[in-house]
Amino acid sequence: MNVDEAARVPVVIVGAGPVGVTAALLLARHGVRSVVLERHRDVYPLPRAVANDDEIHRILQAAGVGEEFTAISRPAGGLRLLDARHRVMAEFRRSRQGHHGYPQSSMFDQPELEQVLRAELARHPECELRGGVEVTAVGPDTTGPVRVTYRDDTGEHELWAEAVLGCDGANSLTREAIGGVWEDLHFEEKWTVIDAETTGPVRCWEGVDQVCDPQRPGTFMRVNETRYRWEFRQWEGQETVRELIAPWLPPSYDGDFEVVRETQYTFRARVADRWRSGRVFLLGDAAHLTPPFVGQGLCSGLRDARNLAWKLARVLQQGGEEGLLDTYESERRPHARHVVRLAVAMGWAMTGGQDGAAALRRRALAAACRIPGLAERAGRDLSPPLTAGPLVRRGVRRGLAGTHCPQPWVSVGGRRTRLDEVLGDSFAVLTAADPGPSLTALFRGLGVQAIPVTDLGDDGTLAAWLSAGRADAVLLRPDRIVMDVVPSGGRDFTSTPAWASLLHTTRSPVPSEQAPSKSLLRSTT
C-alpha cells in the first residue's frame, strides 16, 4: 500500500470532547502522537456534564490537568433523596478526601473543563487538533493502516492511522463503521434540563437532590457559586421554568435569574455490542449511554480513555502483543454495563415510573437507605474491581487484584507530592518492606523498581492498605490498578504469568527513551 508519509499518523481520534482530548493527552504522556478531528472549531459553550468522582479527578491528574481541574471544580456533599414534599428520605454523604486523593464528588462546568483540556493539548507537540472538519468515513483495514477520510474548507483529505479511537458520541460514525449495534438495557424517558444563573437565595445544600415523586420526579444541584441545574421528567401540561423551580426560590422572588440553557433530553440505557474491530476502538458515548442518576456518563468515558491509552502505547511502541488490546473491551464493557444498570435501577427506584408498584418501590428504597453502611457500599459500587483476566490475577489470596491503589500525599527527596507523580507513567511495584533477593531479581527482570512504602513518607495509608489486603507486594499497572499480588508470606508474581507474554516482559515495561518516565522517585534517588 503506497501511502503519503505526511498522511500517516500513529493514532487518529475522532471527536475532541473531554474523552477524546483526555485520550490524546494520556497517549502523549507515553510519547504517542495523535491527530484529533473535531467538527466544531471551538469548545461547545453550553453546559452538559456537571459531576465527577475522585477516580476521574485522578485520571485528569494523569492527563496533566489535576490542579487545573481542582481550581474550576467544587467538592460536593453527596446525594439526598427527597419525597414529593421535599423531605429528606436518605442521605449519601461524600468525603472531601477519597481513595484516589481527591473529593469523592465534584461539581464543574463542562465548557471550563474542555478549555482546560484543550489548553493542555496545545502544550504537547505530540498532539494536533484539527477543528472545523467532518469525518466522512472510517475504513477498518485488518491488513494495514486504517484510513480516515474527512472534509474541511479546502476539500477531502485522508489520514492513515495505526489505530483509530471513536470518541464521536451517541450517533457515532465510528461505531457504524465497525458494525456495532446497541444493546438496549430498557430505560427511556424524556426529561427537561434547565441550567440557570442567579445570585438569589436558592434553597440548596452542598450536594445533589433527587426528588422521588412519581408525578414530578426531578434532580437539582448547585454547580458553582451562581450556577444551578434542574432536571425534570416531562409530562403533559408541563409548567414554565419559573413554575418548575419555584420550590427552590423564595415566594414571589423577582431578582436576577437567567436561564443559560433549557433543553430536552431522552435518557437512554445502552451498551454497544462490540467496542473494537482491528485497530478501531469505541470510547465514551460511542460505546455506552447511561441515564444520569448516578452521575457516571462522562466518568465512564474517561475510564475508557485511561484503560486503553497505556495498552495502545505499549503495543505501538514497545512490542506488546496485539492480544493486549483485547483486554480493553473485556475489562471496560462489563464495567460500563454494570454502571449503566446501576443507573437504571436507581432511576426506576427514584422516579418510579407510573405503574402501580411505583409507590412500593419508593418505600422499599427509603427503608433500604436506613440499613447501616448502605451509603458507603453504594458509593464503592460505582467502580467495582475488575474481574479476573489476562491483566488481573484474582484468587483466594489476591483480594487487592483488580482494585485501584490508593493515592495519598507522599514525601520524596524533600518534596511533598501525590503518589502517582512519584510512580511515573509505567508499571510500578509497591512492597510492604525491603524485598528479598528473589523479588529483587524478579523486579529487575521486569524492568520495574520496587518501592518500599516505608520510603514514601505518607501517613501510613499504603502500609495499612497492603496489610488489610494481606499483601507483601503489589504490581501496579500504568492506570494504577493492581495487576498482581504477592500474598503475605508469598514468593513472587510468577506462578501464572499470563500477563508476561502480553507485555513482552523480556523487554522493559518502563517507557522507552521516546517517552521517558516522569517518576519523581527516579529523578531524586
Q: Can you describe what's shown?
A:
With 525 residues, the protein is of the alpha+beta class. The chain is built from 15 helices and 25 strands. The chain has helices at 18-29, 54-62, 66-72, 110-122, 173-177, 241-245, 297-318, 323-351, 358-368, 374-380, 419-423, 437-446, 461-468, 498-503, 520-524; strands spanning 8-14, 34-38, 51-53, 74-75, 78-82, 88-93, 105-107, 127-131, 134-139, 146-152, 155-166, 182-197, 208-211, 218-222, 227-233, 258-272, 276-277, 280-282, 288-289, 409-412, 415-418, 428-431, 450-452, 471-476, 482-487. Strands 1, 2, 8, 9, 10, 11, 17 and 18 form an eight-stranded mixed beta sheet that branches. Strand 9 and strand 10 (146-152) form a beta hairpin. The longest helix is centred in the middle third of the chain and has 29 residues, at 323-351. The radius of gyration is 24 Å and the shape is globular.
Q: Main sheet, how many strands, which sense, barrel?
A: 8 strands, mixed
Q: How much of the sequence is in beta strands?
A: 25-35%
Number of helices: 15
Percent helix range: 25-40%
Radius of gyration: 24 Å
Structural class, from helix and strand content? Answer: alpha+beta
Summarize the structure.
Helix content is 29%, strand content 27%.
Question: What topology does this entry show?
Answer:
Blueprint: E1 8-14, H1 18-29, E2 34-38, E3 51-53, H2 54-62, H3 66-72, E4 74-75, E5 78-82, E6 88-93, E7 105-107, H4 110-122, E8 127-131, E9 134-139, E10 146-152, E11 155-166, H5 173-177, E12 182-197, E13 208-211, E14 218-222, E15 227-233, H6 241-245, E16 258-272, E17 276-277, E18 280-282, E19 288-289, H7 297-318, H8 323-351, H9 358-368, H10 374-380, E20 409-412, E21 415-418, H11 419-423, E22 428-431, H12 437-446, E23 450-452, H13 461-468, E24 471-476, E25 482-487, H14 498-503, H15 520-524
Parallel strand pairs: 1-2, 1-11, 2-8, 5-13, 11-18, 22-23
Antiparallel strand pairs: 3-7, 4-7, 5-6, 9-10, 10-11, 12-15, 12-16, 13-14, 14-15, 16-19, 17-18, 20-21, 22-24, 24-25
